Amino acid sequence: MEEVPMQRTFLSYIPVDSIFMKVSASTKLSFFFLFNFYPFFISNPLLNFLSGIIAFLLTLRARVNLRTISKYYKLFLTLAFIIFVSSAFFGESLAGPSREVIVRLGPINVYKGAMAFGLEAYSRVFALVCGMLFWLAITTGTELFAALEKLRIGYNLRISIVMIFRYFSVFDGDYHVIRE
After folding, report:
1. Cα angle value 72/74/79 (rounded, 5°)
2. Alpha-carbon distance values, 161 to 5, 155, 167 (Å)
3. pLDDT (tens digit, 0 to 9) for every residue of the chain, 180 residues total?
4. 165: Cβ–Cβ under 8 A, 6 or more apart, which residues?
5. pTM
C-alpha cells in the first residue's frame, strides 16, 4: 500500500490529495469567517448545532486524523457540564421574566428559561469550536498569509496573525509532553 503524502496545517496533517487542499486560500478564509461569525448572529440552537455538525462532517471529509483533534472535542463535554450545572445553580438570575420551574433538585430549582439559555449558549460554543477546528485542520500558514495579502493586510500584521494561529501546533506538542 502506497503512503499518501501529508500536508501540515495549523492543527493537524491532511493528505495532499484531500479535497480541501485544492480549495483556494481565500475560500478557506471565507470558511473561517462563515463558521466563526455565524453563531454570533443566530440564536436558534438547532441551526447552531447543525452548523457545528456540518463543520465536523467537513472535517471528516478532509480526512483529518481525529486523534489529533479529539482532545478539543472532549472539551465540549466539559463545557456542556459547566454550562448546564451553572444554569441549574444560578438559574433564577438567568430564568428571565418567566420563572417556570422544570424540576426541583433538593433546594435547587431548575428553571425553564435558564436551561434554554444554557442550551443556546452551548449550541453557539459548539458551532464556533467545530467551525474553528475545521478551519484550523485544513489551513496552512502559507495559505492564511496569501489570503490576508489578497485583502491588502499589512506585512507585519499578516506575520503576527499567522504566528498567532501557528501557536495551536505548539500547544498540541506541549499537550503531549505534559501527558507523558
Report:
1. 95
2. 27, 10, 10
3. 578 888 888 888 889 999 999 999 999 999 999 988 988 899 899 999 999 999 999 999 999 888 877 877 787 778 777 877 777 667 666 666 777 888 887 887 777 887 888 888 888 888 988 998 899 889 998 999 999 999 999 999 999 888 888 876 666 666 656 666
4. 10, 136, 139, 141, 144
5. 0.81
